[in-house]
Amino acid sequence: MPGLRTGITDMLGALPKTSFAENLNSLFRLVLQDSTVVDLELIEVKDGRTTPRQEQFSLFFRGPLEPFLGQGLFRLEHDRLESGDLFLVPVERLDTGFIYQAVFNRTLA
């Protein structure tokens, strides 16, 4: 699938939830393997179950109808945050585009 990347999630995936919350409603750029740039808007940072030893949260991005990204690991860039790979899953189709989710489930030190 075009744009699908393999590898280990790097700096973007290691950022704390607060970094994403501070950048709510901002644009992330995703560059596909054919050099097509897709803008994704961070529309929600949703808390999951968090314990003293584990942090869970999800990010929701709104993207266009075309191109459809499918499920996979994608490189995202942001003007203020680190660039990195996130595993995105399409979770909803709207008249104006698709909603993609990235789930974080981390062990805390």
How is this structure best described in words?
There is one protein chain. The chain is built from two helices and six strands, in the order ααββββββ. The chain is mainly beta. It has a six-stranded antiparallel beta barrel. The protein has helices at 11-14, 17-21, and strands at 27-31, 37-47, 54-63, 72-77, 84-93, 98-107. Strand 1 and strand 2 (37-47) form a beta hairpin. The protein is globular and about 40 Å long. Helix content is 8%, strand content 48%. The chain has one domain (11-107).
Terminus-to-terminus distance: 36 Å
What does the average pLDDT come to?
A: 87
Q: Give the ordered list of helices and strands.
A: HHEEEEEE
Note the overall shape. Answer: globular
Strand sequence of the main sheet, in spatial order?
A: 1-2-3-6-5-4
Estimated helix fraction? under 10%
Total count of helical runs of at least 4 residues = 2
- What structural category characterises the helix and strand content? mainly beta
Query: How many strands, which pairing sense, and closed or not: the largest β-sheet?
Result: 6 strands, antiparallel, barrel
Radius of gyration equals 13 Å
What proportion strand? over 45%
Number of self-contained structural domains: 1
- Number of β-strand runs: 6
Poorly predicted runs are 1-9
Short description:
This protein has helices spanning 11-14, 17-21; strands at 27-31, 37-47, 54-63, 72-77, 84-93, 98-107. The chain is mainly beta and 109 residues long.
